[in-house]
Amino acid sequence: MPLPNRYRRVIRIGPVKVATYYTRHGVDRHTAACTAPGCGFSADYRDRAAAELAARTHHCSA
Fold it and tell me: Source organism's superkingdom (predicted)?
């Protein structure tokens, strides 16, 4: 059974939340996920800057 993700350094940019977490292999990953209802946007990145850029340029289609 996989361990749950433990997010840290969570910030909100508009409707998108950006957070950092460790993978099960101990590697830092950064995620950006839209919290708007019906949007469904989420992506993982190797760089924090890439995740924040995705959050700043995201436009909900819903």
Answer: Bacteria
Give the SS3 label for residue 5: coil
Tokens of 41: 């946007």
Torsion region of 26: left, alpha or beta (phi above 0 gives left; psi -120 to 50 gives alpha): left
Query: What six digits make up the tokens of 29?
Result: 């990953």
List pLDDT tens digits, range 1-58. 566 668 889 999 999 999 999 988 889 999 999 999 999 999 999 999 999 999 999 9
Q: Let me know: does 15 contact 42? Beta carbons within 8 Å.
A: no
Tokens for 49?
A: 């800057």
Contact 49/55 with Cβ under 8 angstroms? no
CA distance 42 to 29: 13
